[in-house]
Write a structure and sequence with these properties.
- It is built from no helices and 38 strands.
- The strands form ten sheets. Strands 20, 23, 24, 26, 27 and 28 form a six-stranded mixed β-sheet that branches.
- It has four domains: about 110 residues, no CATH class; about 70 residues; about 110 residues, Immunoglobulin-like (Sandwich); about 100 residues, Sandwich (Immunoglobulin-like), CATH 2.60.40.
- With about 400 residues, the chain is mostly beta strands.
């Protein structure tokens, strides 16, 4: 339990649930306290965590105070301020505090969700039936065809995901469903692996797949001279686009194998698909999904060899692919040499500018302490590119 006293007002902030055990939780309250009043109490299964004021710490008379209510495992958190409910808010801010205030929060436990799993004739799904899943948890299902049959298709919440042999629900927050159907024909299986899971922008990686006759799962054999399709998407659940049709190898030692070199310009998902023709005696299959992340090309910051105390100097570098001019995509971390090691002392954001077909980042910096400095550039991960950082720059001496 934590609290602050300033003048005659003591403000204590909000409870954060610390248990992931599902069940009914007792109500919890957080109250302001004048001298002589009882301190705040946390319900069983919770605790109080202090939060900084909007003015910074410590809290002062007339400042604002904000706190967070609940966390991701709660179905709802209802707050009451001075006994008046303000609804199931995730946070509440007292503004211009000039007297004693109170806030209390009550919580409702999240009930488990149900995934209904079913399978048609000539195959099975495991687990099967009404499967209880905790809120936010993952659940994997395995689909298996009987001998002489193959997986015809799998529906997730009524939408087809293809003839997959397994499917994982991630971060379950509601009731879901999965069903599998089967058809006559020998079960096939596709594997897919990637040479480099992360590539630098403009670089390539090799995708390697193998098509197997999986009628006997313990004695799979490669299938040569069959057509398979490499597909790509911008997300694991996104729209799949046919990338290229490949013919599996019939060469001894690599029967069933196929390869494709790809040069993604953004983080991309890949899978292989096999569609058996009518009368082939085989069933179709999909490989598991692989992801190739793309790292931008970030140039090590360039700085002068020396600068004066309190005088500005320019830190700049290059960024590929091109980013929008005016945005602050690159952060510059400033290190000072202290006690025989480089210590991070500051971080500033650089501004993008067009430089031919690429981007030049730059920022003016002032340093007010003499010493030796080095600089490192950093980009945060985005939806299309993974984060990266550079090596340290040359030494700049501030005199």
């Amino acid at each position: 339990m934590s609290s602050w006293r300033c003048g005659r007002v003591l403000v204590t902030i909000v409870l954060v649930l610390v248990t992931a055990v599902m069940g009914v939780l007792a109500g919890a309250s957080v109250e302001s306290e004048a001298a002589g009043l009882p301190g705040p109490q946390a319900a069983r299964g919770g605790d109080f965590t202090p939060f900084a004021t909007s003015e910074g710490s410590p809290w002062s008379w007339g400042a604002d105070m904000a706190g967070q209510l609940g966390d991701g495992i709660l179905a709802s958190s209802t707050a009451a301020v001075h006994g008046v409910t303000v609804g199931p808010v995730a946070s509440y801010t007292f503004t211009n505090v000039t007297g004693d205030r109170s806030i209390s929060a009550s919580f409702a436990a999240v009930a488990p969700h149900t995934i209904t799993a079913s399978a048609g004739a000539n195959g099975s799904i495991s687990p099967r039936g009404a499967v209880a899943v905790a809120d936010g948890a993952d659940q994997t299902f395995t689909i298996t065809a009987d001998p002489g049959y193959s997986i015809a298709g799998v529906l997730v919440d009524g939408v087809t995901v293809g003839p997959v042999a397994s499917y994982t629900f991630t971060n379950v927050t509601g009731d879901r469903s999965i069903s599998a159907s089967f058809a006559a024909g020998v079960q096939t299986r596709l594997s897919l692996s990637v040479g480099k899971a992360i590539v630098t922008y403009g670089s390539s990686t090799l995708l390697t797949g193998v098509l197997y006759d999986s009628g006997d799962p313990l004695h799979e054999v490669g299938m040569g001279d069959w057509l398979v399709t490499m597909q790509s998407a911008s997300s694991a659940t996104g729209h799949w686009v046919d990338l290229e049709t490949l013919t599996t190898s019939s060469v001894a030692g690599s029967v069933g194998a196929c390869e494709l070199t790809v040069t993604p310009t953004a983080s991309t998902y890949y899978r292989l698909r096999f569609v058996a023709g009518l009368g082939s005696g085989y069933g179709g299959s999909l490989s598991l999904i692989v992801r190739v992340g793309v790292r931008p090309v970030l140039g090590t910051p360039k700085v002068p060899a020396a600068a004066r105390v309190g005088r500005s100097f320019h830190v700049y570098g290059t960024l590929i692919p091109k980013a929008r001019a005016g945005q602050k995509t690159v952060a510059i971390k400033v290190y000072r040499y202290k006690k025989r090691r480089w210590v991070l002392v500051r971080q500033v954001l650089a501004t993008n500018a067009d430089s031919g077909g690429n981007t030049r980042y730059g920022v003016k910096v002032k340093l007010f302490t003499k010493g030796r400095y080095r600089f490192r550039a950093y980009t945060a991960p985005t939806a299309t590119l993974i984060g990266t950082s550079t090596s340290l720059s040359q030494v700049l001496t501030v005199r």
